[in-house]
């Protein structure tokens, strides 16, 4: 049976090389359908609302609000998928060989590094939009704490 892109993405994120059984496929497909339907409805509604609001407010403010709301929708979708994966124990995985374990560790660090970069970009953009004065110490402390949490997650998951 051919795997969907979403199933391949879940396998890549969690470093799984073996095919899913029927129950796991059903759970992943059901979650993917809910996320896809929710995102389609949200994007349609947010487009209509931003068009209506654009008539009354400055378009640049509406665009920033639309981008922020779309990012929040994606974050909610990713959180939902993470909850589903953890609820059914799909993140608990026994690695059959050392090569597969190394691949999962590499995937874990790549995923968390990309997340750190996007979060730092989001904080910088938020600082610019709000005309805030986030100091360098805030970014440094946040990055160090995030890297520490990555290390703790690595110890919990792979040791």
TrEMBL record:
Pfam families named in the record: DUF3278
**Xref: InterPro entries:** DUF3278
Q: Where are the transmembrane segments?
A: 35-57, 63-85, 105-130, 136-154
Keywords from the named record = Membrane, Transmembrane, Transmembrane helix
Q: Does the keyword Membrane apply?
A: yes
Put simply, this protein is called Uncharacterized protein
Provenance organism: Apilactobacillus kunkeei
């Amino acid at each position: 049976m051919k795997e969907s892109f979403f199933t391949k993405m879940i396998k890549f994120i969690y470093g799984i090389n073996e095919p899913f059984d029927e129950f796991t496929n059903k759970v992943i497909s059901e979650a993917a359908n809910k996320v896809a339907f929710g995102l389609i409805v949200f994007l349609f509604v947010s487009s209509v609302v931003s068009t209506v609001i654009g008539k009354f407010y400055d378009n640049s403010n509406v665009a920033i609000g639309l981008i922020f709301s779309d990012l929040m929708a994606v974050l909610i979708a990713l959180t939902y998928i993470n909850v589903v994966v953890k609820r059914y124990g799909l993140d608990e995985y026994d690695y059959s060989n050392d090569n597969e374990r190394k691949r999962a560790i590499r995937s874990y660090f790549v995923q968390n590094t990309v997340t750190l970069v996007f979060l730092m970009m989001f904080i910088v953009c938020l600082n610019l939009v709000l005309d805030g004065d986030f100091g360098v110490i805030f970014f440094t402390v946040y990055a160090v704490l995030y890297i520490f949490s990555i290390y703790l997650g690595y110890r919990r998951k792979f040791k």
